């Protein structure tokens, strides 16, 4: 039985990823910062809950100890993320972004990935088929964001794309360091979730597809890559 942890999974893409992986036969833990929301989501899905705030060392350490005591971990999906919008739910562009805003987004999207991955590495290394999936974004692609013919080019924000570019670099470096693991970044696509005020153009079922697929790859699968549902994404 494959045991999987998904951070930030009490709603949105994380919730749907959990639902699809349960259907695929995984034992799933959902990580939720809010215990009550997490409890409701876990009951709805029929999965295990671990209270997990990716910005808090003690919370992450406690979650790792809980999952270790239950038997270990095979797959880690670093899904928790924020966009960090400004007043009136607006995207904050270069004229208005501050270091404080950047720090807030990076604390969850970047440092959270490192914090959680570091805490769970010992468990993953004991697995016969360890997998890490880092949920990135097409907005993290330097190639796409600098190409006027792509939608990503026209996104005005700073903090969120920069954080996802950092996630891509983290993915590449960890994949080289741990060749026995399959470690990849995924781009779900512009999906209707609370993250973007439900302005996305695809469903959570469609958005979760690539994370679910990459969570199930075997030892011969790709590592150190960046993928969407159609295939590799340019860095």
Can you give a write-up of this model?
By secondary structure, this protein is of the alpha/beta class. The protein has a single domain, classed as Rossmann fold. The protein contains eight helices and eight strands; from the N terminus they run βαβαβαβααβααβαββ. An eight-stranded mixed beta sheet has the order 3-2-1-4-5-6-7-8, with helices on both faces. Helix 1 (12-23) crosses helix 8, helix 3 (57-70) runs parallel beside helix 5 and helix 4 runs parallel beside helix 7. It is globular and about 50 Å long. It starts with a strand and ends with a strand.
Beta strand count: 8
Mass-distribution shape: globular
CATH topology: Rossmann fold
The structural class is alpha/beta
H and E string: EHEHEHEHHEHHEHEE
The proportion of strand residues reads 5-15%
**Largest sheet, spatial ordering of strands:** 3-2-1-4-5-6-7-8
Key features of this structure:
235 residues, alpha/beta, Rossmann fold, eight-stranded mixed sheet, 8 helices
Describe this structure in a few short sentences.
The protein has 235 residues and is of the alpha/beta class. It has eight helices and eight strands.
């Amino acid at each position: 039985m494959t045991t999987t942890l998904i951070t930030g999974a009490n709603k949105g893409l994380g919730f749907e990823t959990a639902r699809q992986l349960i259907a695929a036969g995984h034992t799933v833990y959902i990580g939720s910062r809010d215990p009550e929301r997490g409890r409701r989501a876990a009951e709805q899905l029929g999965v295990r809950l671990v209270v997990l705030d990716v910005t808090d060392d003690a919370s992450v350490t406690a979650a790792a100890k809980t999952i270790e005591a239950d038997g270990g971990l095979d797959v880690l999906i670093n899904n928790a993320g924020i966009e960090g919008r400004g007043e009136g739910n607006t995207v904050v562009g270069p004229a208005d972004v501050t270091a404080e805003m950047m720090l807030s987004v990076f604390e969850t999207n970047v440092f959270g990935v490192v914090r959680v991955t570091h805490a769970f590495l010992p468990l993953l290394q004991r697995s016969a088929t360890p997998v890490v999936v880092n949920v990135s974004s097409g907005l993290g692609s330097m190639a796409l964001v600098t190409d006027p013919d792509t939608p990503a080019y026209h996104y005005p924000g700073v903090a969120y794309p920069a954080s996802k570019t950092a996630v891509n670099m983290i993915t590449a470096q960890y994949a080289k360091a741990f060749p026995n693991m399959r470690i990849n970044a995924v781009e779900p696509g512009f999906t209707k979730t609370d993250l973007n005020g439900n302005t996305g153009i695809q469903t959570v079922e469609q958005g979760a597809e690539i994370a679910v697929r990459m969570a199930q790859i075997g030892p011969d699968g790709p590592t150190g890559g960046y993928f969407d549902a159609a295939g590799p994404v340019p860095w």
